[in-house]
Write a structure and sequence with these properties.
The protein is of the alpha/beta class and 187 residues long. It has one domain: 3-Layer(aba) Sandwich (Rossmann fold). 41% of the residues lie in helices and 21% in strands. It contains seven helices and nine strands, in the order E-H-E-E-E-H-E-E-H-E-H-E-H-H-E-H. Strands 2-7-1-8-9 form a five-stranded parallel β-sheet, with helices on both faces. It has a four-stranded mixed β-sheet with strand order 4-3-6-5. Strand 5 and strand 6 form a beta hairpin. The protein is globular and about 45 Å long.
């Protein structure tokens, strides 16, 4: 059996990347899901070290300067997000199937750093459904929603850059497709 490859899951805001990733982990606990670092404040219910590594701008800057991120970016023009490099390399070296759930800019940086990774674009079934999901989350004010939708328009145009495209019209079906793309055994 071939060594596990890093799988990068990207797509626009509110497309369901977190939901699909959580479903993969629930069904395949051996899949290691990278926890990103961010300078934004936690949303209600988010736990440091589980959902994100929440850190100050100064802490983030120190990690950037030390080359400790596989990728990082300013997202939606406001907050920085990044993938710490060390845990990714450690898990891949141990033979663990690894999944990164990141934004478009991050996926592009990972492609430069690790072109052997598998790149998967999670797409919404329609623009209207993406808007409905974003509004339905209720976690952003109107200004932030508009900023995220503007970013999503750009991100949707990047779909051809990816190795695989999965339409998230149904979480279970989308997860099944991602599991197949990752080469995990059927259960």
């Amino acid at each position: 059996m071939a060594a596990p490859r890093l799988t990068v899951l990207a797509g626009p805001t509110a497309v369901g990347k977190g939901t699909v990733s959580a479903d993969v982990r629930a069904r395949y606990p051996e899949v290691w899901l990278s926890v990103s670092a961010t300078t934004r404040a936690p949303r209600p219910g988010e736990v440091d070290g589980v959902h994100y590594h929440f850190m100050s701008a100064e802490q983030f800057d120190r990690m950037v300067e030390a080359g400790e991120f596989l990728e990082w970016a300013v997202v939606h023009g406001r907050h920085r997000y990044g993938t710490p490099r060390g845990p990714v390399l450690t898990h891949l070296a141990a033979g663990d199937p690894a999944l990164l759930e990141i934004d478009l800019a991050g996926a592009r940086q990972v492609r430069e750093a690790m072109p052997e990774a598998r790149f998967v674009f999670l797409a919404p079934p329609s623009w209207e459904e993406l808007e409905r999901r974003l509004v339905g989350r209720g976690t952003e004010d109107a200004e932030e929603r508009e900023r995220r939708l503007a970013t999503a328009r750009v991100e949707l145009d990047a779909e051809p850059e990816f190795d695989h495209v999965i339409v998230n019209d149904d979480v279970r079906r989308a997860t099944d497709e991602l599991i197949t793309v990752m080469g995990l055994p059927t259960r």
